[in-house]
Amino acid sequence: MTTRTKFFPNHYRDSVALMRMSAEIAGLPGIDEASFVMATEANIALVVEAGLLDKGPDPRPNDLMGVVTGSGADEIEAAFDAAGEALASTEGNRGGGAADAVLPRSLDAALDSAPASNLALISCPGEYAGAEAMKALRLGLNAMIFSDNVPVEDEIALKTFAAGNDLLVMGPDCGTAIIDGVPLGFANRVRRGGIGVIGASGTGIQEVACQIDRRGGGVSQAIGTGGRDLDERIGGVTMLKTLDLLAADPDTDVIALVSKPPAPAVAARILEKAAATGKPVIVNFLGWRGDRSAYPSLTFAGSLEETAHLAVAAGGGDLPPFEIDPMPSPVPADGHCLRGLFSGGTFCHEALLELTPVLGGVWSTSPVDEGLTLTDPWTSRGHTVIDLGDDLFTRGRPHPMIDHGLRNERIVKESGDPSTAVILLDVVLGHGADMDPAKAMLPAIAEARELARGGNRRIDFVASVCGTGRDPQNLDRQEAALRDAGVRLAPSNVQAARLAARVLAETAGGAS
User: Fold this and answer.
1) What does the DSSP assignment read for 406-433?
2) Structural element, H or E, at residue 47
3) Please, what is the average pLDDT of the chain?
4) Is the pTM higher than 0.85?
5) Beta-bridge mates of residue 67
6) What is the C-alpha separation between 216 and 425, in angstroms, rounded?
7) What is the pLDDT of residue 95?
């Protein structure tokens, strides 16, 4: 194998565009791996940590860096040529007219060209994102910070400034939002309606919004807070502000809150504010063990799917009571294991909460029981459920919602373990995600089944698809392709976890 590094001077692309480019270049003939990043010190360190380089070059933050590993010099040269053409094509998409001759090169210039704007989306390396977001706030713009690796001190300063100036900061690490019907980041095309969704989780927002859509409801706004917002250090500033905004919004009739459990003091402030909105509020703090009886005006949900169901019903939707297929009795530990390979962190967490009691413990990089933390995240043991979108796995690599390569490799690896009986997956559609995830995944699923058959074994695949028929990938088309390939589908993530447990129980009981 040959590895080569190339710089593209004075080229900037945001992280989603670069993850997509990395995935496309890695798929070219003769190419083993590819990583395209802005050449900041932190990004170069990630590429080295991922093993693509032994030693990183000096940082060049204004330049785009590509690292490609392939079978030979000609293949690598062709890959860099393709990358250069892709960069040139995106620059040339402006049409060449007089109005397109000059693009704004600063927030001030962008605001001059579009003075009605009130939101800036920040997507740049984390060490610079705080400064760019503060520029936006000082210009009177709300900010959605897609970037991660932003220091917590920057987040505190940004949200403190925003709170004092009647502005909203979504993020850092805000991957999903739907503002006035416009999807931002990783988001789905859902119908408009009267339900406002606030979430500290991107895939949690996506699942709730899509489940609302499936039940005939619609979303007024979906606002991400960033994963640290409910930390004691931040104090839930964005969620509190957003509750005020949606309480005053005439287009929002019902509010849904989604996150992992907040810090106790923050949870109390959030729930008190929610109870004071005067609107129905559905709360899902996944795994929260607080006193629900202290908030009789609020409705608490046990899963992402139930959150959506209750929100649609509270908005006047004619729905039956929420029901879900039961979990089996505890599955005997007889060597038949479940492996959950997720691309969404909240999907992984919800599955862990469902599966841990019935399987007697599940190993993970973020387990329910800290004693079941994997010391080697690249190797499963017993029942294992992991989030392959975690920073542990994505350093220097595209996110698995964009590029299924890493998860496909893990699917095949798990199939080589004689104890693997069931593999549980999430499939996420929408803007930013792979344009045909079923097509990307099915060859690995077929290879895994073939390996199992070679060992006189069987592997069952269970999945749920988060998306809608209006998404670019089309929900029905993706589900049909997976179903035709023998993947057992459930209508939601929580139901997929329960289905996987039942299939495992059948396997342990000798059913074929």
Assistant:
1) HHHHHHHHHHTSTTEEEEEEEEE-SBTS
2) helix 41-49
3) 92
4) yes
5) 5, 35
6) 26
7) 44
User: Residue 511, SS3?
Assistant: coil
Pairing label, strands 299-300, 337-342:
unpaired
| Span 127-164, pLDDT tens digits | 889 999 999 999 999 999 998 889 999 999 999 999 99
Count CA atoms within 13 Å of residue 252 on its CB side: 28
- For the record, the structure tokens of 453 come out as 């058959």
Contact status, residue 37 vs residue 24, Cβ threshold 8 Å? no
Concatenate the DSSP letters of all residues of 216-241 into one string.
T--EEEEEE--TTTTSTTT-SHHHHH
Strand partners, 142: 119
**Spatial distance between the Cα atoms of 196 and 208, rounded to a whole number of angstroms:** 10
Diameter over CA atoms, the chain: 71
**Residue 315 phi, psi (nearest 5):** -85, 5
Indicate the length of the chain as a whole number: 512
Q: Is the dihedral of CA 375, 378, 384, 385 positive or negative?
A: positive
Beta-sheet strand order (sheet of 460-466) = 384-387, 337-342, 420-428, 460-466, 488-490
Candidates 254, 259, 220; CA nearest to 239 is: 259
Are 336 and 479 in contact by the 8 Å Cβ rule? The answer is no
* C-alpha span between 92 and 45 (Å, rounded): 32
Q: Which two tokens stand for residue 55?
A: 């030693």
At residue 277, the 3 state secondary structure works out as: coil
* Mean of pLDDT values over 191-211: 97
- Per the DSSP assignment, residues forming a β-bridge with 169 are 143
Cβ burial, residue 445 (10 Å; 0-12/13-18/19+): buried
> CA separation (Å) from 20 to 61, 401, 402?
20, 10, 6
Q: Which helix (H) or strand (E) holds 354?
A: helix 345-359
Neighbours of 484 (CB within 10 A): 10
397/403 Cα distance (integer angstroms) = 9
